[in-house]
Amino acid sequence: MKLTWLGHSGFRLEIENAVILIDPWISGNPVFPEDRRAEAIQGATHILLTHGHGDHSGDTLAIAKELKIPVAGIYDLVSSWITQHDIAGIGFNKGGTVDLGGARVTMVNASHSSSLDGADGPIYAGHESGYMIAGEGHVIYVSGDTDIMADMGWMGEYHQPDIGILCAGGHFTMDMKRAAFAARKYFDFRTVIPCHYKTFPLLEQSAHALIDGLPGVQVLEPEVMKAITL
Questions:
Q1: Within a 10 A sphere around the Cβ of 197, how many other Cβ atoms?
Q2: Strand bridging mode 129-135 / 103-109
Q3: Where is the Metallo-beta-lactamase domain (predicted)?
Q4: Residue 202 has pLDDT above 90, yes or no
């Protein structure tokens, strides 16, 4: 299983028989080298979207059309895109599980907001979400954009993820200290990978507080377009 950071909250996950692009924001992403776009999306089989904000959904429609691959995500947004943009989609909702190339993906709650940019202001884009991705003997918790929430308690107990991909940049989401607290209190991760940081000066630039807050846990600071084998 391989995980490659695309910057911000974007990842390329190679798991089971799938190559899943999670929240692929490439165009205009200040930390992604745009000359490596083809490499980042090569062979992708699915797109998995946590919510509608442009720094997560930015390249979703373009990639879905270019590669003719389905977008999986919250029913409201995906069903709208299927109708309006003629893409393939897998719309589901919290508590639902879908099979993406042998990986079992369950949508779970997040605490944030979700919208698309419109001419007259934000447009409703369904609810924000996170995911539990099970495959190859692992369960990966993709937090999406969220703060700490009590739901993490049952989510950790029920799904027992061993890998956490946690938003941790602060301002719009949990910061590093809050992410460390959530990981300690609600989960038993072996590996934690921070995201939603370094992109802009407004966000945290270092994962030191996360590392210091999780003794005994492998905290991996990802590098853009450098694959991590898990």
A1: 26
A2: antiparallel
A3: 7-196
A4: yes
Give the tokens for residue 43.
Answer: 């062979």
Per residue in 6-29, pLDDT tens?
999 999 999 999 999 999 999 999
Q: Tell whether the model's pLDDT for residue 198 goes beyond 90.
A: yes
Q: Tally Cβ neighbours within 10 Å of residue 103.
A: 24
Tell me the CB-side half-sphere exposure of residue 199, using CA atoms within 13 A: 24
- 111 vs 131: CA distance, rounded Å: 13
CATH homologous superfamily of domain 2-229?
A: Ribonuclease Z/Hydroxyacylglutathione hydrolase-like (3.60.15.10)
Report domain extents, the chain.
Answer: 2-229
pTM of the model: 0.97
**Exposure of 205 by Cβ count < 10 A (0-12 exposed, 13-18 middle, 19+ buried)?**
exposed
